[in-house]
Amino acid sequence: MILIYNNLMIVCICKNINSKKIVQALRSGLTLDDLKVKYGLGSQCGSCLETAQQLVTRTKGEPIKKIA
Ligand code: FES
């Protein structure tokens, strides 16, 4: 599987959810389950869930960046 982490990548084709949206949501404190409910991530074919989980794993260890 190809995973482009810092560049924009469509993760969920069915729901048109890109990696930036997922990472931003994770950094704001949402969980993968929250993304499933809020955006419908993985709610159709489910093939995006492995990549989404990889984003969760990689985002967990990142320092929180200053917003202001
Ligand atoms: S690619 Fe995400 S549900 Fe199909």
SS-based class: mainly alpha
Beta strand %: 5-15%
Present as ligands are: FE2/S2 (inorganic) cluster
Percent in helix: 40-55%
Strand order of the largest sheet: 1-2
CATH class assignment:
Mainly Alpha
Task: Explain what you see.
The mean pLDDT is 84. With 68 residues, the protein is mainly alpha-helical. It has helices spanning 19-27, 32-39, 49-60, and strands at residues 10-12, 17-18. The chain has a single domain (10-60), classed as BFD-like [2Fe-2S]-binding domain (Arc Repressor Mutant, subunit A, Orthogonal Bundle), CATH 1.10.10. The chain is built from three helices and two strands. Strand 1 and strand 2 form a beta hairpin. Bound molecules: FE2/S2 (inorganic) cluster. FE2/S2 (inorganic) cluster binds next to loops.
Short overview:
The protein is mainly alpha-helical and 68 residues long.
Question: What structural keywords apply?
Answer:
68 residues, mainly alpha, Arc Repressor Mutant, subunit A, two-stranded antiparallel ribbon, 7% strand, binds FE2/S2 (inorganic) cluster
